[in-house]
Amino acid sequence: MALEAAGGPPEETLSLWKREQARLKAHVVDRDTEAWQRDPAFSGLQRVGGVDVSFVKGDSVRACASLVVLSFPELEFCLQVAKQNGSSLPSACQPFCCWKQLPAP
Question: What is the pLDDT, as a whole number, of residue 83?
């Protein structure tokens, strides 16, 4: 209840997020599985990406998730995906709805 009063998510939501985090952790690969990972020049790596999830300030429910993909080694923009969400689940757990893709060079 104190979290809710301070603007944080309800305990039920935190519990759900913790279970989802544990589920995802079980799928983490902590070793090199691809040939390019063992090559100092990363030969064969074609794309790199980054993800961010941000909550609206003062709102523990509404959030925005973004994914950006770049070509490698050129670091040219390939794809951006963004979703705003009003659910009680983290945005990263929901399917993305907005796609913007540039044609291949």
Answer: 83
